[in-house]
Write a structure and sequence with these properties.
It contains 17 helices and 12 strands. It is of the alpha/beta class. Strands 1-2-6-5-4-3-7-8-9 form a 9-stranded mixed sheet, sandwiched between helices. Strands 10-12-11 form a 3-stranded antiparallel sheet. The longest helix is centred in the middle third of the chain and has 16 residues, at about 145-160.
């Protein structure tokens, strides 16, 4: 049997030996950029082995690219060495997961030709199983204290309910979300725009290492690869596809986190936003989402109501129960009719309460029993307790 093209270390990358598809996909991960839909179409139409063979040979251009683009891909192919990448990954405790593997999250296939060629995964849990119950929490890097607090609290609440929090490992909202989940001893996944063996940003190296110990660190790019602005944007589609829904906590009008939300919308995932002050530029992008198809959420319970199973409803939002709430409606009407600065006769109170004198007197005695009114001769007056409620803005009425 004739083997196909090999790497500089002698490994077949076209499927001519067991594991050839793995080597081929690792090879293509070094040649193709993340989200390359043309490359994805090649894989669908020609298969991994044929695409690798042509890139290695360089003589039979694949359709859909210019001559200059093809020459650039061929040049990258000449430098690719999947055996070396796999060895470096193994030394860093990283594995390669490809479509069709038991650990591959099937929802990534919703990306069509733009789905990843494969993913590098660092951490012990199964990516597929964790992704089944996950929510993305993303937002601005230069966030406010409000945004940091909301993201951490939201992530902790999701983790406590058994949900996996997915974010991008960046400064700001991403970092707060990861820390919130970790603080709740929950599950979190960082999806990076670089090789998972070189944490970025560097200031989050310790955080990303901790995520790898307690959760998962995931990326499309091979070991040692660096991030670029376009790779951050393309990374966001993976975050959106992996999860059941995306929550944007803070985002300015041009924030990259909005790309995650828009990708989630295109994929039919839930898109949610946490409102902020209308005067804050860092919430302008979120508010624009909320004016469209995004759903307003304020805590983990409301997120789970959307992405969770039927019946996982958020508790109704009510103000505090006040003593007057326990009164009968007729007694509340009489209480509301008492003047705040003087005693009033039962006839006057009945008139303002739109009831009879006898009914007003009956209700006044009920109110006296619970400490709201007191009798002054032939008149009735609010008690000191009720008057204090009026002065503090908590009128019992």
């Amino acid at each position: 049997m004739t083997s196909g093209p090999t790497t500089p270390t002698g490994h077949d990358v076209t499927g001519g030996e067991p594991g050839g598809d793995v080597f081929g996909r690792v090879f293509l991960g070094r040649v193709l950029e993340p989200g390359d839909a043309v490359g994805g179409r090649w894989l669908r139409e020609f298969g991994v082995g044929e695409v690798v063979r042509r890139l290695r040979a360089g003589r039979e251009p694949l359709p859909g690219v210019s001559g200059a683009r093809w020459a650039g891909l061929v040049a990258r192919a000449a430098r690719a060495d999947p055996a070396r990448d796999l060895a470096v990954a193994e030394a860093a405790g990283t594995r390669f997961v490809r479509p069709g593997d038991a650990e591959w999250p099937g929802q990534l296939d919703d990306l069509g030709d733009a789905r990843p060629v494969g993913l590098w995964v660092r951490g012990r849990p199964s990516l597929r199983m964790w992704a089944l119950g996950s929510v993305a929490v993303v937002g601005a890097r230069a966030c406010t204290e409000y945004g940091t607090h909301v993201a951490a609290t939201l992530a902790a609440g999701l983790a406590q309910r058994g949900w996996v929090v997915v974010s991008g490992g960046a400064y700001g909202i991403d970092g707060a979300a990861h820390r919130g989940a970790l603080a709740a001893r929950g599950a979190t996944v960082a999806v990076l725009a670089c090789g998972v063996d070189r944490p970025y940003p560097r200031g989050h190296a310790a955080l990303i290492d901790r995520i790898a110990e307690q959760g998962l660190v995931v990326g499309e790019l091979p070991p040692g690869d660096h991030p670029t602005p376009s790779r951050f944007i393309l990374r966001n589609r993976v975050i959106a596809a992996l999860t059941r829904g995306t929550v944007v906590v803070e985002a300015a009008g041009r924030s990259g986190s909005l790309a995650t939300a828009r990708a989630a919308q295109r994929l039919g995932r839930f898109t949610m936003g946490v409102p902020g002050p209308v005067t804050s530029a860092l919430s302008a992008g979120v508010h624009e989402l909320l004016r469209g198809e995004a759903t307003l959420v304020t805590d983990a319970a409301e997120v789970v109501e959307l992405v969770g199973d039927m019946g996982e409803l958020a508790p109704p939002r009510r103000g505090p129960v006040l003593p007057r709430d326990l009164l009968a409606p007729a007694a509340r009407s009489v209480l509301a009719a008492l003047p705040g600065d003087r005693a009033a006769a039962a006839e006057e109170i009945a008139l303002d309460a739109r009831t009879t004198r006898d009914d007003a007197i009956a209700r006044l005695y009920e109110l006296r029993a619970v400490g709201y009114v007191e009798r002054h001769g032939d008149g009735w007056k609010l008690t000191r307790q009720a008057m204090m409620s009026v002065r503090s803005g908590r009128h019992p009425c």
